[in-house]
Recover the amino acids of this structure.
């Protein structure tokens, strides 16, 4: 079931009243049923994979908590991680590993035949396995106690707003909210509806319309593109994926709010970041903090204390970020981060690109501190934005060859004065850039106005809501799936 569909809105309209009427046990059963129906709209047969992972992790966590020896605890931790990674590895990376092996064999003068097997990627597998793995690891670290309520644990993993594309939440943030329903508040319901409407608007009116121009640009051979064309396509896809995924996050957060459950924010105006480190504190916050706590810091040998899905990869926790072990951990983490997004070397290149950005900033940051001021902040923002947008090219490109050829076009000075794409493509890119720059200032101005004169704020905002709701109603259709569904 897609968020950007009338079916989903009807689904919510039926579910929300029942949720607030039912007592605890029927309410947990309702969440379970809702998750099954939501996931089943895609394919019911892959629910078996989901419930196998849930069941194995549920019992593993209890054994880890009750075990008398460290050996037993570690054995079941490793077993749980192995099972989850095996599921992801088979469904998501089988073809990638096969193609890589065939390529290496070809270089060595050998021939390997592909295995004739048809594998369909279960939707959301990268997200729900991360939920389960964080739970197991947090129990092992003694950050939380395992729940003995099987239905409660199922609901934590299968909770439909975050089931297929996040945010990636920790058990410590969710379990108590699922079991302790807050008093009903009409203003929270209003806030949830508002977030859903904003999310739908961002998806169907902005992201999907930008997608048309992105698809056209990336369908061309890189040799047909000028430097300005490549830069424009990178910026456009950067705006598309931002509006698309932030739209999903808005709808997920709003859907949870309708049930009185609060998710942490997943985006915080990331294109206003003044450094790569700040960018990853603001972009896909739940994933970057997950990678930090469960991959980067353990690889760097740092004890993890953070138990919430906030922060980002830029936090090293020690003040020794230039040490060789931290540098190796950084690049290894980003390679994993890239592969998590997709089973292709283009995603690995995207990850290493960001590792290089973060490492470079760490190296030069001490030298820049003496020049602290607005000029440095503006330069940091412009540089970060430029390199982030260039980095989106391998994320969207069909191959490494396309990426390298496209990047090589950026080295042609004359190419910045040649336009080969449609005029509307450049106009939309310019409007998106101006809008992304202005949006945080407009948001903060409205917040301050709301605090000082709420009535004036409502009068100013009302026409905007009319436009947003009308446009959303006109464009609402499940024409394009959310980009992160493929991960």
């Amino acid at each position: 079931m897609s968020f950007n569909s009338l079916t989903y809105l009807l689904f919510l309209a039926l579910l929300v009243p029942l949720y607030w009427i039912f007592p605890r046990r029927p309410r947990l059963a309702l969440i379970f049923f809702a998750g099954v129906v939501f996931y089943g709209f895609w394919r019911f047969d892959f629910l078996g994979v989901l419930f196998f992972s849930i069941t194995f992790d549920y019992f593993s966590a209890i054994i880890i908590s009750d075990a008398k020896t460290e050996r037993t605890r570690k054995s079941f931790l490793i077993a749980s991680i192995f099972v989850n990674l095996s599921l992801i590895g088979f469904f998501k990376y089988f073809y990638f590993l096969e193609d890589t092996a065939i390529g290496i064999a070809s270089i060595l003068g050998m021939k390997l035949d592909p295995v004739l097997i048809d594998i369909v990627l279960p939707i959301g597998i990268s997200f729900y396995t991360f939920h389960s793995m964080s739970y197991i690891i947090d129990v092992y670290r003694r950050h939380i106690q395992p729940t003995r309520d099987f239905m409660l644990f199922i609901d934590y993993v299968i909770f439909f707003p975050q089931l297929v594309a996040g945010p990636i939440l920790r058990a410590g943030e969710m379990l108590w909210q699922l079991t302790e329903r807050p008093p009903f508040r009409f203003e929270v319901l209003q806030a949830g509806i508002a977030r859903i409407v904003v999310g739908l608007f961002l998806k169907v009116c902005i992201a999907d319309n930008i997608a048309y121009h992105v698809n056209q640009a990336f369908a061309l051979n890189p040799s047909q593109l000028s430097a300005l064309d490549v830069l424009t396509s990178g910026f456009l896809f950067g705006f598309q994926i931002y509006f698309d995924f932030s739209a999903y996050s808005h709808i997920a957060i709003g859907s949870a709010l309708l049930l009185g459950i609060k998710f942490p924010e997943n985006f915080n105006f990331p294109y206003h970041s003044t450094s790569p480190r700040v960018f990853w504190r603001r972009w896909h916050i739940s994933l970057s903090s997950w990678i930090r706590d469960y991959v980067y810091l353990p690889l760097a040998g740092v004890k993890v204390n953070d138990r919430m899905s906030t922060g980002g990869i830029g936090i090293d926790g020690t003040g020794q970020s230039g040490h060789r072990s931290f540098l190796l951990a950084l690049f290894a983490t980003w390679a994993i981060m890239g592969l998590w997004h997709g089973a292709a070397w283009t995603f690995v290149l995207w990850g290493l690109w960001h590792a290089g950005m973060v490492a470079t900033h760490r190296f030069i940051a001490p030298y820049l501190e003496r020049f602290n001021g607005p000029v440095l902040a503006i330069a940091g923002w412009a540089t970060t934005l430029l390199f982030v947008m260039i980095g989106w090219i391998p994320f969207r490109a069909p191959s490494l060859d396309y990426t390298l050829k496209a990047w090589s076009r950026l080295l042609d000075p004359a190419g910045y004065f040649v336009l080969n794409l449609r005029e509307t493509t450049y106009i939309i890119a310019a409007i998106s850039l101006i809008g992304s720059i202005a949006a945080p200032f407009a948001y903060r101005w409205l917040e301050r106005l709301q605090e000082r004169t709420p009535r004036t704020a409502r009068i100013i905002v009302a026409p905007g809501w009319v436009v947003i709701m009308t446009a959303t109603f006109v464009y609402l259709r499940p024409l394009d799936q959310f980009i992160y569904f493929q991960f």
Notes: The chain has 17 helices and no strands. Residues 59 and 148 are 9 Å apart (CA to CA). Residues 315-322 have pLDDT under 50 and may be disordered. The radius of gyration is 23 Å.
